């Protein structure tokens, strides 16, 4: 028997809306693959989503099952992956409380991901405390399951770094190896641009293509994509860099030679935007159609989807509870244990 331990993977999504192609290329494809190679926990991060959705809690809770449906639609197998709801695993909140004692406010404010998100939301100094401590919450999620690998986008790398800082600080404090450091798993395409070419793909910015998009919605989205504003006629040489259509072709078209030929033709002139968009539209239609079909099948029995998540949450509590017991034991918080 091999002595190599199976990797443990923790990943998840803030449940503020159904998932889109940016999520798919960023980590969903990796999650489907990893479930055959690792023990995988998929977190529906409703608690974290509430940190910047005050007064919009109903939107967050309604989308928990929507994200679970997306997971199942892309091929996540609940027999291989544990899907669970963050707020229903109280062990995570307790572990976060202990980890908060190991990090300063100044260190949290220096986290590049948090700094960028604070600026994006216009919080300035009026930062919700829950949002500022988001990295510690994420660290609790990861360490509770002793995850060794975490699929993330490159913008989340500072979060992994801070998680490992907390792991080392805790283990040094209790003078034993209790928590486990993790490593980031980056996809080949770490970030997909939005349809407008001005920002990463985001449902809140209105520049995303949902995984459940209809054929007409896909066509409309592709036709609206930002290309080269100076490519006014098909005969004009065009620029590929910054061209959203080609960014999508790089991400979703498996025939690399075909994409390279399209790029070369576009650069030298003689290839219209409408032709390139038609190629991309056909590719995305073929990609999303089976996902959309599976999603509709699961939507027909939402009670079973809820049962899948309930069973996953019970499993998650067992695992997180075991880690929490180790943490409390290391801290001496075992007053009544015999």
TrEMBL record:
Gene Ontology terms describing biological process: tryptophanyl-tRNA aminoacylation
Keywords from the UniProt entry: Aminoacyl-tRNA synthetase, ATP-binding, Ligase, Nucleotide-binding, Protein biosynthesis
EC number: 6.1.1.2
Pfam family, one: tRNA-synt_1b
Signal sequence extent: none
InterPro entries, A to Z: aa-tRNA-synth_Ic, Rossmann-like_a/b/a_fold, Trp-tRNA-ligase, Trp-tRNA_synthetase
Record keyword Cell cycle present: no
GO cellular component: cytosol
GO molecular function terms listed in the Swiss-Prot or TrEMBL record: ATP binding; tryptophan-tRNA ligase activity
Keyword DNA-binding: no
Catalytic reactions on record: tRNA(Trp) + L-tryptophan + ATP = L-tryptophyl-tRNA(Trp) + AMP + diphosphate + H(+)
Family: Belongs to the class-I aminoacyl-tRNA synthetase family.
Protein name: Tryptophan--tRNA ligase
Protein source organism: Paraburkholderia megapolitana
Lineage summary: Bacteria, Pseudomonadati, Pseudomonadota, Betaproteobacteria, Burkholderiales
């Amino acid at each position: 028997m091999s002595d190599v331990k199976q990797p443990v993977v923790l990943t998840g999504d803030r449940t503020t809306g159904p998932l889109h192609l940016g999520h798919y290329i960023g980590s969903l494809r990796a999650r489907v693959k990893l479930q055959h190679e690792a023990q995988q926990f998929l977190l529906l991060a409703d608690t974290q989503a509430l940190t910047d959705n005050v007064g919009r809690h109903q939107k967050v809770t309604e989308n928990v099952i929507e994200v679970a449906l997306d997971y199942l639609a892309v091929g996540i197998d609940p027999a291989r992956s544990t899907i669970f709801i963050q707020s229903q695993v109280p062990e995570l909140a307790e572990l976060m409380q202990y980890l908060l004692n190991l990090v300063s406010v100044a260190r949290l404010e220096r986290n590049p991901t948090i700094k960028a998100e604070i600026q994006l939301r216009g919080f300035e100094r009026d930062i919700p405390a829950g949002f500022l401590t988001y990295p510690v919450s994420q660290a609790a999620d990861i360490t509770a399951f002793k995850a060794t690998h975490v699929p993330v986008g490159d913008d989340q790398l500072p979060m992994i770094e801070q998680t490992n800082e907390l792991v080392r600080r805790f283990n040094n404090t209790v003078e034993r190896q209790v928590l486990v450091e993790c490593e980031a798993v980056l996809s080949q395409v770490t970030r997909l641009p939005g349809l407008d070419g001005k920002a990463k793909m985001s449902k809140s910015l209105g520049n995303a293509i949902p995984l459940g998009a209809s054929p007409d919605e896909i066509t409309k989205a592709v036709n609206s994509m930002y290309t080269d504003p100076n490519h006014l006629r098909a005969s004009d040489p065009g620029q590929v860099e910054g061209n959203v259509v080609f960014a999508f072709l790089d991400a979703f078209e498996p025939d690399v030679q075909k994409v390279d030929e399209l790029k070369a033709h576009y650069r030298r002139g003689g290839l219209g935007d409408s032709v390139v968009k038609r190629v991309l539209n056909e590719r995305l239609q073929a990609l999303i159609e089976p996902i959309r079909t599976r999603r509709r099948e699961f939507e027909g029995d939402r009670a079973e989807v809820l049962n899948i998540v309930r069973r996953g949450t019970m499993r998650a509590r067992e695992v997180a509870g075991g880690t929490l017991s180790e943490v409390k034991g290391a801290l001496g918080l075992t007053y009544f244990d015999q």
